[in-house]
Structures are given as structure tokens and as C-alpha cells.
């Protein structure tokens, strides 16, 4: 049986699979179980894969990844029935056949009937040049509609047409330019990131050690006066420097060699090309002069250049990981398992299952310290929840029987039992992660501009280096020694990486800052556009107001204390689902901070449209409309509530007890939010479907001059488009389903985290904590981010504008050029990381 035939066979039933040892190609313990090649002496312990219940050794990370992929896809029969080892790199097809198993039928890739979309992890991302190269290659594939590599999270987002492209084609295209890729898996992704960090750390250590030793050998040549250093001793120093430089060139500089080779093989000029050319030119010239016994050598410049560049790469890597840390925190917040109670309430014996298998209707137990695996409703127990991962709110929130728990929250109180309402894949946290994934799939305009400039920059630099060599060769009368040194300095001093890193690093850091403050940015242009906004348009209900009745005032009409009146009213309303009843119950809970109301009422009955009645200590009570309570309490009350508020009365036999005034009140932070935007020169407008008089009243309270009531969704849309036609850049803030269209049409939009899912899906950002003043923080971070981006772009441009001519004029030698290039990238990255700190 051939490899391909085995791979295309149906996946075996692993529950009944019997492995016959005689049918499996055997391998000695010193041979790779996948390809049969000898396992090198330096093989790492992690190069092992469990196959048919046995840990099998592999010869390299490539075979390990391929073998693990086969097992993950359920194709264990490949190893059971194969008749020969897998082909090796020599003469093998472009993509290992195992990875061709990924096809459009996989549900992970489904977007629509004709379109597919997926997130991939790509190994070997070294710098911004890799991003440009990978995106450029994938856009050349037939059927690929979009490809974007997020440099902060090292994730590749691809969308393609199912009839023209397959996942295997995408993986093959990446394979041809030297990158291994696979569908995103958080655990595998973390392993690859840790491996990349350790490898880069070792290369940095070797380069630093080589640099220090070489400096010891070249120091005598720098300090010696003419004729004081013997020629034989000088030659010995050169040979020692050569031997010490070799590890840095052939091991530490591997990322630059690989990057340059990938670029040239793809017929593009990546940013590693001038770096590799500079290292090669300096090292080759030094080796030739060493063998000839005379001339200048640049071993110190080469080792210093490699070391400083690796320092810059390491700093850049750490910065990318920090900038993408918010998404990783959310990913790790998804629990892997949950305890399901199949026989509840008869039994509370739990079974541990994978969180991904949970379905609506199941009952699960959540112990203290565990994450909520899926959205659910509490059936038994009271507890406290840590919602910081979801909303940024640090204080724990009390939850009791009947309350809804969002998936991803942490139980920091007591053990509870809850019924699942959404599967784990559709939980609150999972949906947030999907929104963040959407944010990384497109680039802001300013980042696209920087990438285009950097691509042309490399070509111009190579042309300038050749021209510089020619001019100095001619000026020195045909002597190449000085011309060679100056050309190397030109190649080394340039820093296109700083230009490409200036924008994405700052945007990633700013986005991370906002997420930690409870603002989820999902649109690529959000920060850039918010900074340019001229008009802020607010919806009223649920945005500037709570969107539901809130108890505003309690007027005591009898002798009973206010707190007791509230507790009696809440006890009567506890079983009612009416919005006014829920508002009174919530007010009582907030006042007492109790887990439940201790009042024991009897004969409680709700009369729709009138109110609720019940008996407490043999005394009848009623709560509801004045007429309903008046039938029990006697004459109508003389108290009236302010305009716009709804009265709810409480009474007992023959007496009135209290009047509760309820209204959809303004959020306490609404006034300060509107004032902030007025102070920074933005124009504020208020749109609502409520009555014109009520909308104008709210506008007056908030100091909003433009307040329009009675707006239907199409009228809101027309209002925003009219502003845009007049040249305004409009930010829209809303929360309801009827706001979805206008949120999509606005230049930048924000949805309340407590609002409708449809509104959140069409918004560019979501205020997870439900606080409208988070919009002020967003505007402030947007201003800081754009300022840092401008600083970075100006710095990168000025540095290259000054450093390249100086190098071409012979004012800078190669090792100083290396220092300048490394520092240029470091300055950009460190400046961007300032955005992670709250101002």
C-alpha cells in the first residue's frame, strides 16, 4: 500500500482498532519512526509522538509535526498499514502528503457554502519582513480572497473560495517559501512560541560570546601604534578572530540567512536581504584578507552586528508577545473540561468531560476556583464571580439562584450547580475571542502604507549600495578595499524593519491597553478613525441610560421604615418577571447586599396589569398600581411622582405604606462622558426612538444641543449619512438590534457590552464593562497611539535619511552602522510598549 492510498483511506474506528505488529514497518530505536532516517545524537526529548499507544522517536521537529498531524486527524491507520517509510526531503513533493488531508470539508473552515476561512499558526516568523512575504505569496494563490498575518499574535488569517482553493494549497504555498503552518491550536502554538524563544536565546548567547572574545583579539590591533604589533602576531589574531566569528556567522546568523534565502527564492526583496548581504560581504572580505595575510578585517564588526541585530529581534519578539498578551489571556481562560451531572437532581456524582462536548440543557457543577465552561443559569447555590477577564472589572460580583453566568468567568465563592444554556463554542468568552480574531484579519490604512514604503525601500537600498561601491571604487583609483567597507556600511546601517514595526507594534500595544480596561477593539481602523472623529452620536436607551427601569426614589406614606418597605416590596415582587418588579428586587438586593430575601410570604398571587398581592404575618399586602393597592388600603394617596417617572405603590389592609418612583435613569458617568468630548472639541448628538419631549429633556440634562427623538432605524442611518456627506467623521455608540445598521454605516462604532449580540457584531469596538465612560478612555488611548505611531514613523524616516547618506559618504564604519540599525528598531519597539501602561 502506498503512502497516499493509506492517507486517503477512511479514519479508523480507534475504539476497535487492533494493531498487528507485523503490519507496521519496524524501526530500530536509533531510526526515525516516521521517515526511517537515523536519529541524530542531539535529538531532543520532545521529538516524540504517541502512535498506537507507544511513544515513538522522531529525527527532527518536521517529522514530529507531521506525525502529530496524522494522529490529530485520526489517520493512525497510515502507520498501521504502510509498506514503506515516508519520503524524505530529497525528491519529495512540495508539501508532505499528510498535510494534504486538510480539505474544505473540515467544519473548522466553513464560512458559507462557497467561502472558507481559517486561522493558521506559522512557524519561523522572524520580523516584519516575514509578514509582508507571506501575505504577498498567499495573495498570488487562485481563490484566496484575503490573507493577513498578525505580527503581534503570530496568527495567519486566510479567507478563500472553496471551489478554487483548498487548505492544503495554502499550506503548500507557505511550504515553498520556507514556512511550516498548521490550523491554529493554542497548546501547539504556545509550544512553538516557547521553542522559538529558546532557540533565539541560544543564538543570542553564542553571538554575544563570540563578540566579546573577538573584541579581546582585535583590541591590540586598535591600541598598538604603527610598527609595535608584530606581523606574525597580527596574523595570529586574525586567525583566532576568524575561528571565533564562525559560530556567530553560521549559527547565530541563521535567521538572517534563512530569511534572505526565502526572499530570493520567492523573487522578492525582503528586509533580511540587505542584512545577509552585509554580513556575507564583511565576512568574506575578512576571510580573504586573512588568507592573504594583509588588508582590513571586519570580524569585530560582523559579530557585533549579529549580536545587536539579535538583541533587536529578541526585544521585538518579547514586544510582540506582550502586545498580544490580552488575546492569550482570553484563550487560556477557556477551560478544557467541565463536571457534568447526568443524574441531577437524583444524584450529584459528576463526570469530567471535555468542555467542547457540552450542549444546552446539561447540568454541570462549578467548584470554587474553576472557570465557567459555558453560559449557564444557576440552579443551586450562591457564589461570587470574577468577571475581570470578560469586562475588566476587578471586584467580584454576587450571583444567586436564577442568575445567568457567562462562560469564561471564574467562580471565586462557593460550589454551585447550573444548567447550560449555550454550548462552550458559543459562550460569552468564545464570542469575545471570535470578535478579537476578526480584529486581526485586516490592517489599518497607515500600516498598509508603511508596508508598501518598506518594500520599495529595500530595492532602493540595494541599488544605492551598488552605486556607492562603484563611486568609491572609481574615486580610489580601482582599489576595492575602502569601497567594499563603505558599501557594507550602507547595507548594514539601513533599517526598514523599524519602518514596518512602527505601526503594528503601537496598534497592538494600544489594543492590549484598551482590552485590559474593558474595551474590546474588533475593527482594524478603530483607533486610527476614532482619533480623526469630529462627531460623536449617542443612542439614548441602553447607552446613555440603563435601558431598563431603575428605582429612583422611595416616598414613605406610613409609619414603616423606608428599608423595611423596600424589603416587603421586593419579597412580594420576587417571583414576578415584570421589569418594574425586577427593578425593585434588584434595588433591595443592592441595599442589603444579601444573597436572598428572608421574608416568608404566603398566598402570593400576581394579577397581570395590576400588581402582586400576598400575606405576611397574617396581614395582606399589595404592590402595584394606585387603583389596585387602593382596593386594599382605602383612599387614593395624595403623593405624585415627577414627570417621566412611573409610580408603584405598596399598601396593607387599610393603610398606604410607600410609593416607589422608577425611571430609565441616566448612567452616572453619562454627564462626564459628554463633557469630555465637548472639551476636546467634538460635536455630540443624541438620537433615540423615544418620544421627542423625553429625548430633549435628556439632551438638556447632558448639555447636548442636537437631540432628535422618534427616530426609526432608517432615520438614524440617514442622519449619520447626512453628517458624512458634509465631511464629518462620525463615531456611533449604541446597544440595540435597531442600531445595527447605523453602527455599520458610521466611520467608527461602539456597542455596549450589555447590548444585543447583533449590535456587537456590527460594531468596531465593544464596551465590555458596560460603562459609557470607557469611550473617553478609548479616545485618549487612540490619541496616544496615533502620537506614538507618528513619532515612530518620523524617527525611522529621519534615522534612515541621515544614516544612509552618512554611510555612503564614508563617515560611518560597519560596526557603528550595526549599532545604529539595532538601536533604531529598539527605539521604535520600546516607544510603542509605553502604550501598554495606563496614562
* Distance separating the two termini: 65 Å
Strand content: 15-25%
Number of helices: 28
Which strand order does the major sheet show?
Answer: 16-28-27-26-17-24-25
Shape: elongated
Q: Structural class of the helix and strand makeup?
A: alpha+beta
Compute the CA-based radius of gyration. 34 Å
Extract low-pLDDT stretches: 1-28, 87-95
Helix content: 40-55%
**Strand tally:** 28
Mean pLDDT value? 76
The description of the largest β-sheet is: 7 strands, mixed
Walkthrough of the structure:
The protein has 839 residues and is an alpha+beta fold. The longest helix has 38 residues, at 186-223. The chain is elongated. The protein has a seven-stranded mixed sheet with strand order 16-28-27-26-17-24-25, sandwiched between helices. Strands 8-7-9-15-10-13 form a six-stranded antiparallel sheet, with no helix packed on it. It is built from 28 helices and 28 strands. The chain starts with a helix and ends in a 6-residue tail after the last helix. The protein is 48% helix and 16% strand.
Amino acid at each position: 500500500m502506498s503512502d497516499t492510498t493509506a492517507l486517503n483511506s477512511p479514519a479508523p474506528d480507534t475504539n476497535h482498532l487492533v494493531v498487528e505488529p507485523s503490519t507496521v514497518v519496524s524501526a530500530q530505536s536509533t531510526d526515525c519512526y516516521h521517515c526511517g532516517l537515523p536519529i541524530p545524537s542531539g535529538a531532543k526529548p520532545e521529538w516524540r509522538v504517541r502512535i498506537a499507544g507507544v511513544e515513538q522517536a522522531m529525527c527532527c521537529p518536521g517529522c514530529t509535526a507531521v506525525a502529530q498531524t496524522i494522529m490529530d486527524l485520526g489517520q493512525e491507520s497510515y502507520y498501521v498499514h504502510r509498506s514503506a517509510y515516508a519520503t524524505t526531503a530529497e525528491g519529495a513533493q512540495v508539501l508532505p502528503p499528510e498535510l494534504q488531508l486538510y480539505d474544505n470539508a473540515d467544519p473548522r473552515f466553513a464560512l458559507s457554502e462557497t467561502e472558507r476561512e481559517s486561522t493558521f499558526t506559522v512557524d519561523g516568523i522572524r520580523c516584519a519582513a516575514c509578514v509582508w512575504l507571506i501575505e504577498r505569496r498567499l495573495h498570488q494563490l487562485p481563490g484566496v480572497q484575503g490573507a493577513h498575518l498578525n505580527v503581534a499574535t503570530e496568527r495567519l488569517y486566510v479567507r478563500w473560495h472553496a471551489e478554487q482553493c483548498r487548505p492544503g494549497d495554502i499550506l503548500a504555498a507557505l511550504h515553498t517559501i520556507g514556512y511550516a503552518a498548521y490550523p491554529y491550536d493554542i497548546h501547539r502554538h504556545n509550544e512553538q512560541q516557547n521553542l522559538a524563544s529558546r532557540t533565539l536565546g541560544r543564538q543570542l548567547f553564542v553571538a554575544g560570546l563570540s563578540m566579546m572574545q573577538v573584541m579581546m583579539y582585535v583590541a591590540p590591533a586598535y591600541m598598538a601604534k604603527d610598527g609595535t604589533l608584530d606581523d606574525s602576531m597580527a596574523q595570529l589574531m586574525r586567525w583566532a578572530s576568524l575561528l571565533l566569528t564562525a559560530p556567530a556567522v553560521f549559527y547565530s546568523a541563521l535567521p538572517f540567512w534563512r530569511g534572505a534565502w526565502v526572499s530570493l527564492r520567492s523573487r522578492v526583496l525582503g528586509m533580511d536581504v540587505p542584512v545577509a548581504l552585509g554580513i556575507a560581504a564583511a565576512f568574506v572580505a575578512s576571510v580573504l584578507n586573512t588568507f592573504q595575510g594583509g588588508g582590513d578585517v571586519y570580524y569585530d564588526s560582523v559579530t557585533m552586528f549579529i549580536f545587536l541585530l539579535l538583541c533587536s529581534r529578541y526585544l521585538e519578539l518579547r514586544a510582540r508577545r506582550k502586545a498580544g498578551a490580552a488575546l492569550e489571556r482570553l484563550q487560556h481562560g477557556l477551560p478544557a473540561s467541565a463536571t457534568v451531572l447526568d443524574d441531577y437532581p437524583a444524584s450529584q456524582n459528576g463526570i469530567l468531560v471535555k468542555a467542547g462536548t457540552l450542549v444546552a440543557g446539561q447540568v454541570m457543577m462549578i467548584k470554587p476556583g474553576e472557570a465557567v465552561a459555558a453560559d449557564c443559569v444557576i440552579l443551586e447555590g450562591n457564589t461570587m464571580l470574577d468577571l475581570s477577564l470578560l469586562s475588566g472589572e476587578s471586584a467580584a460580583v454576587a450571583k444567586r439562584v436564577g442568575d445567568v453566568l457567562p462562560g469564561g468567568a471564574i467562580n471565586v465563592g462557593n460550589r454551585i450547580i447550573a444548567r447550560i444554556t449555550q454550548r462552550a463554542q458559543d459562550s460569552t468568552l468564545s464570542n469575545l475571542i471570535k470578535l478579537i480574531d476578526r480584529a486581526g484579519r485586516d490592517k489599518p490604512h497607515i500600516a498598509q502604507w508603511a508596508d508598501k514604503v518598506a518594500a520599495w525601500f529595500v530595492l532602493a537600498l540595494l541599488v544605492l549600495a551598488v552605486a556607492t561601491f562603484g563611486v568609491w571604487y572609481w574615486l580610489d583609483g580601482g582599489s576595492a578595499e575602502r569601497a567594499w567597507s563603505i558599501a557594507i556600511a550602507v547595507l548594514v546601517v539601513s533599517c526598514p524593519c523599524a519602518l514596518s514595526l512602527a505601526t503594528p507594534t503601537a496598534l497592538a500595544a494600544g489594543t492590549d491597553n484598551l482590552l485590559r480596561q474593558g474595551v474590546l477593539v474588533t475593527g482594524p481602523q478603530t483607533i486610527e478613525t476614532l482619533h480623526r472623529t469630529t462627531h460623536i452620536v449617542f443612542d439614548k436607551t441602553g447607552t446613555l441610560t440603563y435601558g431598563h427601569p431603575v428605582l429612583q426614589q422611595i416616598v414613605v406614606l406610613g409609619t414603616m421604615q423606608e428599608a423595611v418597605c423596600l424589603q416587603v416590596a421586593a419579597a412580594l415582587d420576587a417571583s414576578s418577571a415584570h421589569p418594574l418588579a425586577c427593578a425593585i428586587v434588584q434595588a433591595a438586593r443592592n441595599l442589603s447586599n444579601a444573597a436572598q430575601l428572608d421574608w416568608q410570604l404566603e398566598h402570593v398571587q400576581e394579577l397581570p396589569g395590576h400588581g402582586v398581592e400576598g400575606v405576611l404575618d397574617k396581614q395582606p399586602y399589595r404592590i402595584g398600581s394606585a387603583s389596585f393597592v387602593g382596593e386594599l388600603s382605602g383612599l387614593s394617596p395624595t403623593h405624585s411622582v415627577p414627570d417621566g417617572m412611573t409610580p408603584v405603590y405598596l399598601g396593607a389592609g387599610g393603610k398606604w405604606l410607600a410609593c416607589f418612583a422608577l425611571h430609565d435613569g441616566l448612567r452616572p458617568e453619562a454627564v462626564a462622558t459628554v463633557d469630555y468630548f465637548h472639551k476636546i472639541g467634538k460635536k455630540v448628538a443624541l438620537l433615540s426612538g423615544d418620544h421627542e419631549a423625553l429625548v430633549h429633556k435628556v439632551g438638556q440634562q447632558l448639555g447636548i444641543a442636537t437631540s432628535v427623538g422618534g427616530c426609526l432605524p432608517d432615520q438614524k442611518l440617514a442622519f449619520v449619512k447626512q453628517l458624512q456627506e458634509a465631511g464629518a467623521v462620525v463615531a456611533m455608540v449604541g446597544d440595540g438590534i435597531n442600531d445595527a445598521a447605523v453602527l455599520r454605516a458610521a466611520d467608527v462604532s461602539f456597542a455596549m457590552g450589555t447590548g444585543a449580540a447583533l449590535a456587537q457584531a456590527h460594531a468596531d469596538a465593544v464596551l465590555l464593562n458596560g460603562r459609557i465612560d470607557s469611550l473617553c478612555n478609548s479616545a485618549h488611548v487612540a490619541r496616544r497611539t496615533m502620537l506614538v505611531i507618528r513619532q515612530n514613523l518620523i524617527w525611522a524616516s529621519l534615522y534612515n535619511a541621515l544614516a544612509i547618506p552618512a554611510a555612503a559618504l564614508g563617515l560611518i564604519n560597519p560596526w557603528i552602522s550595526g549599532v545604529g540599525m539595532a538601536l533604531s528598531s529598539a527605539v521604535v519597539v520600546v516607544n510603542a510598549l509605553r502604550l501598554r501602561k495606563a496614562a
